[in-house]
Amino acid sequence: MARDAKSFLADHPLPEQPLPAPDIAPYLDALAAAKTPAEVSAVSPTASWTPRSPP
Fold first, then answer.
1. What is the pLDDT of residues 18-42, one digit of tens each?
2. Going by C-beta distance under 8 Å and a sequence separation of 6 or more, which residues neighbour residue 49?
3. Segment Disordered: which positions (predicted)?
4. Which of 4, 9, 12, 15, CA to CA, is 20 to 30 A from 28?
5. What is the DSSP string of 1-55?
């Protein structure tokens, strides 16, 4: 740890172990099912939409 950050980290202690990752599966499922730009925007306003080719 950098000497300059010791005081800051003493005032703002962080967890010893990393936090568990959030479950993003519902978002990925919804994005995979999206067929229009509006549906994509409903899930993720910053995602871009590219039409899929038919199977």
1. 889 999 999 899 999 999 888 888 8
2. 34, 36, 37, 40, 41
3. 1-21
4. 15
5. --GGGHHHHHHS---SSPPPPP--HHHHHHHHH--SHHHHHHH-TT----PPPP-
